[in-house]
UniProtKB/TrEMBL annotation, chain B:
Alphabetic keyword roster: ATP-binding, Ion transport, Nucleotide-binding, Transport, Zinc, Zinc transport
PANTHER family to which the protein is assigned, alphabetical: IRON TRANSPORT SYSTEM ATP-BINDING PROTEIN HI_0361-RELATED, METAL TRANSPORT SYSTEM ATP-BINDING PROTEIN TM_0124-RELATED
Domain ABC transporter: 18-249
Name of the featured protein: Manganese/zinc/iron transport system ATP-binding protein
Organism of this sequence: Neoroseomonas alkaliterrae
Molecular function terms from GO: ATP binding; ATP hydrolysis activity
Length: 451, 263
């Protein structure tokens, strides 16, 4: 840990110089706790914001806050007080943020542009005003501009314990309100019209949600920064949404991911004071989201791809085994029995219309599973393989028989359709579809090569 | 065109479940409903008319969900504010996001919110009432299923269960039969008949002319204005239907209407 002249908070945090790496300063601990609490609140409020389709509103609030922060600092400095004092800056940010949202709503209500465009226009305009004011402030004498730029990208390491306590208190307030309003928020998010018919004011609930978004955004300005605060609201909620369908569980998960992201960001900022906290927080959240998107058991992309691949493989296995069985039948073993002749893999490939290499891969795989015996260029069903093949043949013929019986397809069409739907058909279901449940009927079509 | 139902209810000495006077609604500069005066009698009433006739608009405006340029809606002779707990609502299924993180039971519980403190958990008694409503529409086994994993017909039945859980005396239903399977349609019809038998009233937007006579005792034919209203036998005539649908009704539908009218 090097002494950082530009970061008084870190200097204060090292209350016991040389006490060793194991001892974290009081200040660092408070900042860490404050950021975790902030993430907790943002995760909870963000879940409702996401469900109500208000994620971009949070972005507008964040960007619109900049002119408020700068103006507040100017006013405080002009009055001769310490412009770094947090409460007036946060109040300015909140006011400007609310004004930004009102501007978005007013713009959208003119029906000249849609809400997404209104949000883009308002957030960039307000932000531009803020940037212009900021450059003006920097020409002013005095300390008005001191540390204002840290609100843009966030710098937890520059926070004093007092600042962290403020942020933590505001975040706790938002969290408590959110939990108290849980039922109302859920009703208004799912079906606002129904809530209104029941006498709940959806407008008032929306206003409460907006208030919560503004509160969390403002609380997070110093730690995360106004550009990236939207991510702390959206990423934990989006992550949790991938992991569960239950709202209470979703809120809990979202809060945990938010708290972890906030703490990770603060820790990174403490370790590397030049790293903007906002970036660290967002990267931690984005990592969680990416993991959930890829590996969520239910909605993840990887498990889904695996499930699809497994289903495809199972279908190909069944097709192979059935082809082996039917080759026996075609060779004169008679329906319902599996003779013990060897069948050339090339003949099976021809019967399925497969490339020979594919048939070979399947043959080797099924040999590994002990369902076929492989010798030279030929296969032979093992007893287990024959049982599996018989099930597959029954399922196929049950579907064929059913389709033909209801007149839904001709023989060739029934064969093709059955190939698609037979997999996963239980033996019981097959019995219900077959005219004689216990026996294996003959194929309705000639066996052998596919056209 | 002011309805028979109002008179019948007046004879019975109690105000009608729903009474609409001079309702005019416009979207922007385009009027959708023109000076509609109509009252729904007790029992089952269908609102029928072509696309864009203002059927859903009538219901939403009566419930105060969209602003009316003029006109009033009275429920049981009172303002909606006074009798909210006696009025139930079944919105169109497509009006919500079914991917929302909620179970069927969660959704039905929302009907019980007015009976609960607005903070804290759903009390056991309210949860049981919601379960009973789900059982009534045949979804008792799917109470814990995420709503996105229900079929379209099952989702519609969840909405119906939510309306039932409101335990209202009048239900306004927006297309309860839209895009449902035959089993769900029969389940909904059975519920409507039970409601009517229990003295409750239902006003439902309906789009299938061939089943109007089967499902409803009264009908309102709507096309911007109230074209005809009254018992299905009297008001649901080929002439009134032609007047409501203009030239938009094709011959095939006419045929089925005639058949329905005679039965």
């Amino acid at each position: 840990m090097r002494p950082a002249a530009g970061h008084p908070a870190r200097a204060a945090g090292r209350s016991l110089p040389g006490a060793g790496a194991m001892t974290l300063g009081y200040n660092t601990l408070v900042v860490l706790a404050g950021c975790a609490l902030l993430g907790l609140a943002a995760g909870t409020v963000g879940a409702f914001a996401l469900l109500r389709g208000r994620a971009l509103v949070a972005d507008a609030v964040g960007h619109a806050a900049l002119p408020g922060v700068v103006l507040a600092a100017m006013i405080v400095a002009t009055l001769g007080h310490d412009p770094r004092s947090l409460p007036p800056l946060l109040a300015g940010a909140a006011l400007a943020g609310v004004l930004g949202v009102l501007a978005v709503q007013a713009l959208a209500r003119t029906r000249r542009i849609r809400e997404d465009a209104a949000i883009a226009i308002v957030l960039s305009s307000f932000y531009a005003v803020g940037v212009a004011l900021l450059s003006y402030v920097q020409t002013m004498p005095g300390a008005a501009q001191a540390g204002l730029t840290k609100f843009i990208l966030g710098q937890a390491a520059a926070m004093r314990a007092e600042d962290a306590l403020w942020a933590g208190a505001v975040a706790t307030l938002a969290l408590a309100l959110c939990l108290l309003l849980f039922q109302r928020l859920r009703a208004a998010c799912f079906d606002p019209d129904f809530a209104r018919v029941q006498g709940m004011s959806a407008a008032r609930t929306d206003l409460a949600l907006l208030g919560l978004i503004v509160t969390v955004t403002v609380a997070g300005l110093q730690a995360v920064g106004l550009i990236l605060i939207v991510a702390l609201l959206v990423l934990p909620a989006a992550t949790a949404r991938l992991l569960t369908y239950r709202l209470p569980r979703l809120l809990l998960l979202s809060a945990v991911v938010g708290a972890a992201s906030g703490a990770a960001g603060a820790a990174a900022s403490a370790a590397a004071p030049d790293l903007p906290t906002g970036a660290a927080v967002v990267l931690a959240g984005a990592a969680c989201f990416t993991l959930a998107l890829l590996f969520s058991p239910d909605r993840g992309l990887v498990p889904e791809a695996l499930r699809r691949a497994r289903r495809r493989l199972a279908a190909a296995e069944e097709h192979f085994l059935r082809a082996a069985w039917e080759a026996q039948e075609a060779a004169g073993a008679g329906p319902g029995t599996a003779g013990d002749r060897w069948t050339p893999i090339a003949a099976l490939a021809a019967a399925r219309g497969w490339a020979e290499a594919r048939a070979w891969r399947l043959a080797r795989w099924l040999a590994l599973r002990g369902l076929v015996a492989l010798s030279e260029r030929q296969v032979h069903l093992t007893p287990r393989g024959a049982a599996a093949a018989r099930r597959a043949v029954r399922a196929h013929r049950a579907v064929e028989h059913h389709l033909l019986a209801i007149g839904a397809a001709d023989t060739a069409g029934a064969d093709r359709l059955a190939d698609l739907v037979e997999h996963g058909l239980s033996p019981e279901a097959a019995s219900r579809l077959l005219p004689e449940p216990s026996s294996l009927p003959a194929s309705p079509h000639a066996l052998g090569g596919k056209p | 065109m002011s309805a028979d139902g109002g008179e019948a209810a007046a004879r019975a000495g109690s105000p009608p479940p729903l009474e609409i006077r001079g309702l005019t609604v416009a979207y922007g500069e385009r009027p959708v409903l023109w000076d509609v005066t109509w009252s729904a009698p007790p029992g089952l009433t269908g609102i029928v008319g072509p696309n864009g006739a203002g059927k859903s608009t009538l219901i939403k405006a009566a419930l105060g969900l969209i602003p009316a340029l003029s006109g009033t809606a009275r429920f049981f002779g009172r303002s909606l504010e006074e009798v909210r707990n006696r009025v139930g609502y079944l919105p169109q299924r497509a009006s919500v996001d079914w991917d929302f993180p909620a179970t069927a039971l969660d959704v039905v519980c929302m009907a019980r919110y007015p009976r609960m403190r607005w903070w804290g958990r759903v009390p056991r008694a309210e949860r049981e009432a919601a379960r009973a409503a789900l059982a009534e529409v045949g979804l008792a086994d799917l109470a814990e299923r995420q709503i996105g994993r229900l079929s379209g017909g099952q989702q519609q039945r969840v909405f119906l269960a939510r309306a039932l859980a409101q335990d209202a005396d009048l239900y306004l239903m927006d297309e309860p039969f839209a895009a449902v399977d035959a089993a769900t349609e029969q389940a909904i019809v059975a519920v409507l008949r039970r409601l009517a038998a229990a003295g409750r009233s239902v006003v439902a937007v309906h789009h299938d002319l061939s089943t109007v006579a089967d499902y409803f005792a009264h009908v309102l034919l709507l096309n911007g204005r109230a074209i005809a209203a009254g018992p299905v036998r009297d008001a649901f005539t080929p002439e009134a239907i032609a007047a409501a649908y203009g030239g938009r009704l094709n011959l095939l539908e006419h045929a089925s209407v005639h058949a329905a009218g005679r039965s």
